[in-house]
Amino acid sequence: MDFYELLQGHAAVFLLLLTRVSGIFIISPFFGSLNIPVYYRAAAAFSFTLVLFPVVDNFQGITAPATVLGYIGAVLVELFVGWLIGVVAYISFAAITFAGKVMDMQAGFAVVNVMDPTSGQQMPLIGSFLYNLAIIVFVVTNGHHMIISALFESFKLVPLLGAEMNLSLPLIIARFTTGIFFTGMKIAMPVTFAILLTNVGLGILARTMPQMNIFVVGIPMQLTVGMLILTMVLPFYVLFLDVLFNEMYGNITIALEALQ
């Protein structure tokens, strides 16, 4: 049986597979970017499905649901599995954006926002810089290959039409979501702590020299200290991203195992 005959005889299964693959193109880092036109993302999802289809169908002997309601339910479940992979991957980048917001607030950039073309939303200045730098590191270190690998592995952990909603999944997602705060604070800690020490010094200076206009001196000093410390810790930030992306892949595996 050639590929065309295989596709013609299993079109319903092919569409289910396409639905799961399309899930990562909705929200995941890089693949779900709004910078990429929708028809390019759709073409990429279709191409991935063409590669996956012979392997998944031959080795798992899948039969699509016979009823319309059953098939619609299967489509929604497969879309959820793909979406789950993208969401767990995106959580790591949400922590980076949160860290940027904290640093912007401390450094005095809280009122300065820029339009982020990848999400179509307003983002803080430092947060946008850290996010875009993370995307570059993500691609250079083959992080996008991790998502593709996780998609391939998902068919081993959760076979097509084999997902089961486990009660532990909401708890796992909640744990990953709360990790946004802790990871973001780890990233923002050097800049935040340096600016805190600067504010303490300015407070002491204001008490000893009350005639000095501390607001005129303090704001530029906060900006200078924040930018200086951020520049100094950037190499360590890049190293931390490598650890974060490896943790991201492990989190995706944990989330998929909850669907077994």
Automatic annotation (TrEMBL):
Cellular component, GO annotation: bacterial-type flagellum basal body; plasma membrane
UniProt keyword Membrane present: yes
Transmembrane segments: 12-31, 38-56, 68-96, 129-152, 172-202, 214-240
GO biological process: bacterial-type flagellum assembly; protein targeting
Pfam families given in the database record: Bac_export_1
Keywords on record: Bacterial flagellum, Cell membrane, Cell projection, Cilium, Flagellum, Membrane, Transmembrane, Transmembrane helix
Subcellular location: Cell membrane; Bacterial flagellum basal body
Coiled coil segments of this chain: none
Entry superkingdom: Bacteria
Function (record text): Role in flagellar biosynthesis.
Record family assignment: Belongs to the FliR/MopE/SpaR family.
Protein name as it appears in the record: Flagellar biosynthetic protein FliR
Protein species of origin: Selenomonas ruminantium
Native organism taxonomy: Bacteria, Bacillati, Bacillota, Negativicutes, Selenomonadales
